[in-house]
Amino acid sequence: MIQYLPTIFVCIVLGAIVALAIFSIVRDRKKGKSSCGGNCAGCAMNCHCHSAEKKEES
Fold this sequence. Notes:
Layout lengths: L4 H27 L19 H7 L1
């Protein structure tokens, strides 16, 4: 069992990092923040990303 202790520790640390990342994403979504960087010209989804906002502005 002692030989697996470093592996278990690394797994716990990685699990905590993943959990914090998910928590941060969920919190940002609830606040209305987007993961969009704002550079629509270089984005492959530029015609779909903000299409609802663009229609409202027109």
